[in-house]
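hey so u asked for the seq, here:
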Amino acid sequence: MPAEWGQAKIEILALRDEILGKLEQGILIRTIYEELSASGRITMSRRSFYDRVKRLRTEASKPTRNTSAQSTGHTSKPIQNYLTENSKPATSNLLPSLKAEEQEELDRLWEGSSDNTEETP
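ran it, structure tokens below
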């Protein structure tokens, strides 16, 4: 039986925090879909779920000034201050889908590759 128009969006929005939390824990989207579908908490197709979670992740990664400043009660720091305070190289933001350990390894390899370059005569 087909769901009503807009039902998938409602289901995703209702489970937004839970889905994003599980993704941050490293649980695969496929596993999340199977659990939610088996328990009857979502009725959409797998493809629709993947597309909507992709949009959720994109929206969640976009910081909004008004929302972040209002929710924390603090004003956001300028990017330059953030980079100097955290002493991580600018390359740490190249691949936001990597886990912290993977990103550190990539940064280490990236920095090491510039040291190993040899000039040919």
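The CA atoms of residues 50 and 94 lie 23 Å apart. The longest helix spans residues 46-61.
lmk if thats what u needed
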